[in-house]
């Protein structure tokens, strides 16, 4: 039995076998890579979609919270104005006046601290005067609440203007409303 292999056929067969093996190995490596890449894209898309949803929900919650705080603040302001009117009518007791100042602090929590930053040596009476001026009260109304004369209120306003360092053209009421 004479078994001979033609070299041309053997060469072609070897090339085909090596090429097939190379394609198989390339497919074995490339296909999982492409599948993994698509999976990563899907996961990133899901993550971005979830983060967008989270941001929208967070914005909704913050806007709702902000609206609720504004509503509560408006309610407190109206309650503060009502209690202030009652204080002026009834010439309220010391306890009622103190409750008014505590309500004022709730509505304007940074008012006294910012005033103390501007005027480090401000007294408690000047703080009370500033709080009443912040409520747009006249000198007569302030004098009734503080149990002093209207002229004393004018003097206290003058001293406060000097302490702050306002020029005659600048308005104390506008300055206090900006705080």
Give a concise summary.
82% of the residues lie in helices and 0% in strands.
In terms of topology, how is this protein built?
Elements (H helix, E strand, L loop, with lengths): L6 H84 L3 H14 L3 H8 L5 H11 L4 H8 L3 H15 L7 H7 L1
Helix pairs in contact: 1-2, 5-6
Shape: rod-shaped
- Per DSSP E runs of 2 or more residues, the count of β-strands stands at 0
Distance between the termini: 112 Å
Mean pLDDT: 86
Description:
By secondary structure, this protein is mainly α. The chain has two domains: 8-77; 108-179, Arc Repressor Mutant, subunit A, CATH 1.10.10. Helices cover 82% and strands 0% of the residues. The protein has seven helices and no strands. The chain has helices spanning 7-90, 94-107, 111-118, 124-134, 139-146, 150-164, 172-178. α1 (7-90) packs antiparallel against α2 (94-107) and α5 (139-146) crosses α6. The protein is rod-shaped and about 135 Å long. The mean pLDDT is 86.
Q: What are the salient characteristics of this protein?
A:
179 residues; Arc Repressor Mutant, subunit A; 2 domains; 7 helices; 0% strand
């Amino acid at each position: 039995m004479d078994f001979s292999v033609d070299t041309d056929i053997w060469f072609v067969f070897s090339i085909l076998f090596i090429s097939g093996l190379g394609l198989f190995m390339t497919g074995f490596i490339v296909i999982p890579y492409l599948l993994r890449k698509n999976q990563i894209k899907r996961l990133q898309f899901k993550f971005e979609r979830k983060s967008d949803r989270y941001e929208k929900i967070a914005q909704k919650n913050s806007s709702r919270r902000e609206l609720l705080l504004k509503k509560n603040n408006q309610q407190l302001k109206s309650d503060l104005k009502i209690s202030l009117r009652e204080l002026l009518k009834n010439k309220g007791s010391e306890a009622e006046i103190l409750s008014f100042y505590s309500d004022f602090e709730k509505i304007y929590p940074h008012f006294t601290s910012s005033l103390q930053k501007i005027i480090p040596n401000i007294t408690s009476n000047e703080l009370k005067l500033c709080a009443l001026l912040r409520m747009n009260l006249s000198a007569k109304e302030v004098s009734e609440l503080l149990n002093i004369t209207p002229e004393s209120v004018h003097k206290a306003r003058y001293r406060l203007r000097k302490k702050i360092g306002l020029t005659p053209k600048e308005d104390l009421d506008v300055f206090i409303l900006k705080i």
